[in-house]
Write a structure and sequence with these properties.
There is one protein chain. This protein has helices at about 1-45, 60-65, 90-95; strands at about 70-75, 80-85, 95, 110, 135-140, 145-155, 170-175, 185-194. By secondary structure, it is of the alpha+beta class. It has two domains: about 1-65, no CATH class; about 65-194, Sortase (Sortase, Chain: A), CATH 2.40.260.10. It has an eight-stranded mixed β-barrel with strand order 1-2-3-4-7-8-6-5. The longest helix is centred in the N-terminal third of the chain and has 45 residues, at about 1-45. The N and C termini lie far apart (about 75 Å).
Length: about 190
Amino acid sequence: MQNNKRVVGFILLIAGAIMISIPFFYEWKQNQKTAALEEALSLVSQSDEVDLASINHLSLSQSELDEVIELEIPAIELKQKILPNTTEENLSIALTQIKSNQTLGEGNFTIAGHRGYREDRHFHSLPDVPIGAEVILHDKEERYIYEITSMQVIDPTYVEILEDKPNQNELTLITCTIDGKKRIALQGKLAHMK
């Protein structure tokens, strides 16, 4: 009887250790992919001819790397890369463009990001961005500066928020609420380009 209790206790201990280690393993895998992305972007910025096959854990093509832009929100000290396509894998390592074939400074430029549990990742602090804050999108040549005009909590099915409005150049940033049941949407208008 005593041996059975020890065996059960040992099994529960091992199961608990595995359960605790799963998030750490997942984060370790994410960090590898993020580091690969950063390495690739650094190499691409230095040279036109880069052997991407030499970069371990890189899941993006040369054309996708060429389309990567950067989002900066000074009010929450955020600087993140934005990948051109929204996939689960891309969302795990960076922010993503929601709509395909978007053009910076034209229409409603839409960006999605996971909330993240760490303060320095993805859109963790997006709800803390105040109305009137600047949001800057950087591509290789220009900076597009938007001013946040609204924040709202919406249902995941409210996709109309992503639509272009006639003669309006906007930005929409989307993340989940903490419980994941709703979405937080920040919108801003294009103030100017530099």
